[in-house]
Amino acid sequence: MKVAHALEVLQALGVLRTRGISDPRRPMETLRTMKDSRTLGPQAALIRHSARIKPDAPGIVDEAGTLTYRELDEQSTAIARGMQTAGITEGMVIGVLARDHRGLILSMAAAGKLGVRAALMNTGFAKPQFAEVCEREKVKAVLHDSEFLGLLDALPADLPRYITWADEGAQLPEGAQTLDDLVAANSTEPMPAPSKPGGFIILTSGTTGLPKGAPRSKVTPLSTAQLVDRIPFPPGGTQVIVSPIFHSTGLATWLIGAALGNKVVVRRRFDAEATLKMVADHKAEMLVAVPTMLHRMVELDPAIRAKYDTSSLKAIVLAGSALSPELTIKATEVFGPVLHNLYGSTECAVATVAKPEDLALAPGTVGRAPITCEVRLYDDNDKHVTAINTTARIFVRSGAPFEGYTDGRKKQIIDGYMSSGDVGHFDEHGLLMVDGRDDDMIVSGGENVFPQEVENLLLERPDIFDVAVVGVDDVEFGKRLRAFVVPEPGHTPDGEEIKTYVKNNLARYKVPREVVFLDDLPRNPTGKLLRRVLVDYEVQA
Predict the structure, then answer these.
(1) DSSP 8-class letter at 529
(2) Which of 165, 194, 216 is the last residue of a domain?
(3) CB within 8 A of 524, min separation 6: which ones?
(4) Which of 106, 283, 356, 409 has the fewest CB atoms nearer than 10 Å to its CB?
(5) SS3 for 172-226, per residue?
(6) Angle, in degrees to the nearest 10, between helices 325-335 and 291-298
(7) Going by C-beta distance under 8 Å and a sequence separation of 6 or more, which residues neighbour residue 217?
């Protein structure tokens, strides 16, 4: 086993060379970047790397304009110096509550240079959640966009805070400091490196309860190899990222973009047409999004889509929530065979990636494990399941091991494989299909139902834009199925006809007893459905 894993590492290093992450023509630069990563963490080390080899290349493009890699490096140093003067020092934790823009990138890089841990906060937090997470993670300073000023009322008044983005016309508190203030007031001369990297705390998606903190002290080259092994990142090219960078996929794809010296184009709030315009204007080779965003782009009026030339795209990278077979087919018709469906989690990191040829064989698949990763299925008795088309619990062995939650809890591990919390099966092609969350399973009348199967069926209908199926309490059956349907604009589907449609295509016990029509489904910023909100939804009799 040790020999096999050593060979995997060698293969992974080969992948990094092939994909342009490490350049054999610059061995000293590679060694310098590795050394920086061990103390500064990847967010600062990779910016410094690109600032050395292509200082004037555009590093980040947002609504405020463009910053080069040199400017990102210099400004993040000035910000780190300003925070250090205010008493924020190595080993502390700072909270970063920011949308996708330069302020978020500069905050993370400054944290790396100080050796402080950056807790990346969810921009969808309510005040109680935000305050609880700050207390649990022992946050000593908060860097935040002006729109979130109201959330900070719940924090101690003397907690240092800095504005990462000020909206036009925003009323800032007296004495408030912005990142621009720190840049203007402090030197950009390089700082002494911290003794060890501060790392990140990436919060789980938090679809139920308080999100857990998953710390990453460092990012190994193996985790980079996992992503570039099956996804064609454009070396020296352009990436548009609309998936939130505070979460795993957006963060990981930005880090790889920084390693490659890419131009990364972001926007604070997602807009379907604006995203197509960003791709067209910048001739982007890669788009990183969540499936709900892709859905909204595909559903735009064809006349609107036709205004923008997106033929430069070589890869659309999707993660964060399930990619339905129907959306796979529609998006491929619109954008061509460029979809890459990434499956993983905050804890597991990368598990599998589906390439366009995989999605052509099995629309909706999450594909195969990349280099240094393996996926196994285990039944409820912890026995390894190898039969095809047999649903069981998904476990992952990854080259980027989980360090445990910040509250001390762990995930179940069997034979070195960690639980993903999902269930799925391998098809006849060896491709992994995710059937749903283990805890989403509905037991109705003694029968097990995974809602994703019913949802995928209903999404095939031209009159349904979005759908969710949940289990609600029922005296007779224990649980009954309730479908929440968002109609396609211009359509008025009939609830009884929808039930009949499911009955004609699936087993009787998978037919929803009720169909409720909504204008929109509740989702978090990473696109995950908030099923608990729907379970508790009060339906008018």
Answers:
(1) B
(2) 216
(3) 122, 124, 205, 206, 207, 530
(4) 409
(5) CCCCCEEHHHHHHHCCCCCCCCCCCCCCEEEECCCCCCCCCEEEECCCCHHHHHH
(6) 50
(7) 196, 197, 199, 403
Per-residue burial over 437-468, b if 16 or more Cβ lie within 10 Å, else e, is bbebbbebeeeebbbbebbbbbbebeebbbbb
Q: What percentage of the chain's residues is helix, strand, coil (to nearest 5)?
A: 35, 25, 40
Looking up tokens 């003794």, which residue turns up?
A: 195
Instruction: State which residues form the domain around 356.
Output: 1-40+219-437
What count of other Cβ atoms lies within 10 Å of the Cβ of residue 173?
A: 11
Question: What one-character DSSP code corresponds to residue 531?
Answer: H
**Residue 124 phi, psi (nearest 5):** -95, 5
Q: What is the pLDDT of residues 335-373, one digit of tens each?
A: 999 999 999 876 667 899 999 999 999 999 999 999 888
33 Cβ partners below 8 Å, 6+ apart?
45, 46, 48, 49
User: At which of 173, 198, 216 does a domain end?
Assistant: 216
Three-class DSSP category at 32: helix
277 and 422 housed in the same domain? yes
The pLDDT tens digits of the residues spanning 82-129 come to 999 999 999 999 999 999 999 999 999 999 999 999 999 988 888 888
SS3 state at 327: helix
- 521 with 529: CB under 8 angstroms? yes
Specify burial of residue 331 (Cβ count, 10 A radius: 0-12, 13-18, 19+).
Answer: buried
Give the domain CATH number at 488. 3.30.300.30
Q: Specify the pTM.
A: 0.88
Distance (Å, rounded) from C-alpha 293 to C-alpha 272? Answer: 7
The count of structural domains within the chain is: 3
Secondary element (H or E) of residue 393: strand 392-397
The low-confidence residues of the chain, meaning pLDDT below 70, are 1-6, 8-9, 204-222, 346-348, 399-410, 541
